[in-house]
Amino acid sequence: MDRPTLILRVMLMAWLSGAATVSAQTAAQDAPHAFTISPGYRFTEKSGGALYNATCAGCHMPDGKGAQGAGHYPALADNPAVGAAPYVIINVLRGRKAMPSFGDEMNDDQVAAVVNYTRTHFGNRFAGDVTPSQVKDLR
User: Fold this and answer.
1) How far, in Å, are 12, 29, 54, 72, 112 from residue 39 at the CA level?
2) What is the domain-level CATH number for residue 113?
3) Average confidence (pLDDT) per 10 residues, the chain, 139 residues
4) pTM for the complete prediction?
5) Phi-psi bin for 10: left (phi > 0), alpha (psi -120 to 50), beta?
6) 22-60 CB burial, b ≥16 within 10 A, e <16
7) pLDDT given for residue 1 in this prediction
8) CA distance 106 to 94
9) Are residues 64 and 126 in the same domain?
10) 134 and 67 in one domain?
11) What local confidence, expressed as pLDDT, does residue 8 receive?
12) I need a labelling partner for 53 at 20 to 30 A (CA). Which of 29, 32, 67, 137 fits?
């Protein structure tokens, strides 16, 4: 490899690594809700809203209206299916179609919290809180 090519490659690599660093920093600053996973690969958030933002909002959108593009992510907003608590619990625990499962990453309290959040937000007003005991029974 001749010297000018080597210099160009080094300059390109330096530019790309600098751009990636700036991009990552910007994304971290712009992230409205940071989330963390413990060393045991479990979510650390406890509230339904924080769990929704960490796990669901990326596909179902922060407003719960879903999205279409490379895939179809159904709306949770004003969705009568969300009224069936066992249906939502099982989807969170085991996943469904393109939706990943979160049963290994969330405990029963967390699953109950995120299910209750989706059942009482985005225009949904379904009665009856889901309990951790109900989640445990459906695991």
Assistant:
1) 35, 23, 16, 31, 22
2) 1.10.760.10
3) 58 51 42 58 91 93 90 91 96 93 96 97 94 96
4) 0.72
5) alpha
6) eeeeeeeeeeeeeeeeeeeeebebeebebbbbbbbbeeb
7) 63
8) 11
9) yes
10) yes
11) 52
12) 137
Q: Please say whether the beta carbons of 112 and 68 come within 8 A.
A: no
C-alpha to C-alpha distance for 115 and 137, rounded to whole angstroms: 15
Same domain, 25 and 52: no
Range of the structural domain that residue 15 is part of: 1-30
pLDDT score, position 93: 97
Residue 130: Cβ within 10 Å count: 24
Output the pLDDT for position 19: 43
Q: Residues for the chain: how many in total?
A: 139
**Which regions of the chain does DSSP assign to beta strands (E)?**
67-68, 72-73
Question: 108-120 and 48-55 helices cross at what angle (nearest 10)?
Answer: 90
